[in-house]
Request: fold
Amino acid sequence: MEEVAIIRDAGISRLSVGAGPVFHMNWITSLFDELINQFPNLKLELRTDDYSTMARRLKESNIDIYLGMIPDKEKDDSIYSQQLIKVEHGIVMRKDKTVAKDKFINPSLLDGYRWVSFTSDPVTEKRIEQYTTLKGTEDSLIDIRTTSLASGIQLVKTGHFVMSAPLQLDSIFEKAGLIIRPVEQRMDIRDAGLHIRKGMLGSQVIQNVIRYFQNILATQN
Reply:
């Protein structure tokens, strides 16, 4: 039905995009600008909620595209996926901290700091807690979870907080006067990319989104 509607209506008039932090901080602005120039009547929506809900939202047509991580177990034949980047989390802190001088951070040396998580990421939290949390405790390491990178940055700038965030946002932290370092023994490196309901693939708007990221990949390679 979705495919027939796209053909009948010569495309779509509204595009709802879900995006993980690396995508919405690095590319969404230029993507949306390009789409509006190409399709002046197109209405755009951006959702940056917890990635764990995005596969369900995509299948239920609450969003049309998701840019980020979807676990393989949550994918099915209704979703077209293209891997674009690999994402690894690190730890953000002020540059004047002693541990910031190390190439890799041992989270156990951060005792006394409060923890911020930029977006909810149970995989990363579990890895960090292996360094910092006593075995047998059910307490979460994270004091604050936020989908606002600006709020996370301001908290870290106070000097009382450190933040878990993707290493691929290093240029943004650098501009804010902060530093991000990978964790000793490294975090899990996970695939992230473009996920689209297959019923939407006939839309010219969707094809332009696919080409946009193919061009980015070609430039990076």
Observations:
- The CA atoms of residues 119 and 147 lie 5 Å apart.
- DSSP finds eight helices and ten strands in the chain.
- The chain has a mean pLDDT of 85.
